[in-house]
């Protein structure tokens, strides 16, 4: 279910970007794809964090190691 919602969010973002920006040009396509992939990943992460999966905890710990501003209590 999370994968379906992730895909729908990414597709919707891509469709919206192409509607607003158009789909002609390399930079527009690159921006649209990057934004839609980011939105899809954020939706997927937001849906999996509450499940308390060990893989998700590992992923979050790795992010916090690499991105110090994500650490809680800092």
Short key terms for the protein model shown above:
mainly alpha, 3 helices, 74 residues, single chain, flat, 76% helix
Describe this structure in words.
- The protein is mainly alpha-helical and 74 residues long.
- The chain has one domain (2-70).
- Helices cover 76% and strands 0% of the residues.
- It has three helices and no strands.
- It has helices spanning 2-21, 26-48, 54-66.
- α1 packs antiparallel against α2 (26-48).
- The longest helix is centred in the middle third of the chain and has 23 residues, at 26-48.
- The radius of gyration is 15 Å and the shape is flat.
- The mean pLDDT is 86.
- What structural category do the secondary elements indicate? mainly alpha
Summed over residues and divided by their number, the pLDDT gives a mean of 86
CA-atom Rg in angstroms: 15 Å
User: Main sheet, how many strands, which sense, barrel?
Assistant: none
Indicate how many domains the architecture comprises: 1
How many alpha or pi helices? 3
